[in-house]
């Protein structure tokens, strides 16, 4: 199936820029890492699908994130050689499963073996369960998953960016705090560092988003009035 044509927007490329309010030279304490696929941090997601025979497969993806609010959507960059890519095109539905720290080894295993040759769920000793709202499995042992439908895809060269519309988000009830929000200290999601190729846990809470900046803005405003 040919990739659906994606709408493009013309961008005026500015070749030269004279900064008006930025310093033109700063302390030379930056080292260039080149045009690399390094950004901190990336998630550790496990994309689960059924193949054409109905067997469950799962692959780890770190080049992924939330893509849109309405409709709620995710993106995952997948090499077309992955069995998962074939499965997504065939079934048009998948889940994004979020492993907790205790499943780091399983997640890594899902990222080094192909479901084309192996039943990875069986080999890993994990349980595929059919998601309620899409024809795709989720990893029952992981604390959270998103049910997604293939919305679009875009060929960027080595990878296709897969856009999935989020149909439902499910999380184990014990992962919720008293306000019904997901407690990261309980969920313990993994993050991936692409340059060192290491998994990390999530650290301490730093502050409330959309609030600490607002307080800062207010303080600055107050300061300027004086
Ligand atoms: C930490 C980690 C992150 C990965 N991220 C991606 C990714 O974002 N996109 C991708 O195509 N492959 C990624 N991979 C590689 C696939 O998970 C791997 O090729 C897997 O064996 C594919 O399985 P499948 O053939 O059953 O689909 C990653 C692997 C690891 C270990």
From TrEMBL:
Q: Which Gene3D superfamilies match?
A: Electron Transport, Fmn-binding Protein, Chain A
SUPFAM superfamilies documented for this protein = FMN-binding split barrel
Q: Where is the Flavin reductase like domain?
A: 38-178
InterPro entries, sorted:
Flavin_Rdtase-like_dom, Flavoredoxin, Split_barrel_FMN-bd
Cofactors (names): FMN
Question: Which GO-annotated molecular functions does the record name?
Answer: FMN binding
Q: Which UniProt keywords apply?
A: Flavoprotein
The reply on keyword Flavoprotein is yes
Q: Name one Pfam family in it.
A: Flavin_Reduct
The entry's family comment says: Belongs to the flavoredoxin family.
Protein name, per record: Flavoredoxin
């Amino acid at each position: 199936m040919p990739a659906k044509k994606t709408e493009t927007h013309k961008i005026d490329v500015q070749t030269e820029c004279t900064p008006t309010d930025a310093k033109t030279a700063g302390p030379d304490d930056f080292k260039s890492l080149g045009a690399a696929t390094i950004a901190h941090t990336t998630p550790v997601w496990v994309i689960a699908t059924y193949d054409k025979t109905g067997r469950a497969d799962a692959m780890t993806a770190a080049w992924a994130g939330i893509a849109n609010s309405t409709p709620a959507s995710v993106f995952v960059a997948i090499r077309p050689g992955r069995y998962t890519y074939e499965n997504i095109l065939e079934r048009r539905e998948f889940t994004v499963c979020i492993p907790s720290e205790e499943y780091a080894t399983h997640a890594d295993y899902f990222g080094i073996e192909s479901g084309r040759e192996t039943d990875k769920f069986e080999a890993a000793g994990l349980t595929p369960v059919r998601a309620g709202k899409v024809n795709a499995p989720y990893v029952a042992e992981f604390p959270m998953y998103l049910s997604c439908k293939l919305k679009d895809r875009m060929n960027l060269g080595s990878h296709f960016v897969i856009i999935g519309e989020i149909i439902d988000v499910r999380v184990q009830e014990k992962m919720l705090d008293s306000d019904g929000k997901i407690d990261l200290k309980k969920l313990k999601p993994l993050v991936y560092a692409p340059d060192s190729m290491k998994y990390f846990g999530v650290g301490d809470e730093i502050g409330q988003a959309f609030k600490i900046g607002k307080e800062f803005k207010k303080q600055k405003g107050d300061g300027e009035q004086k």
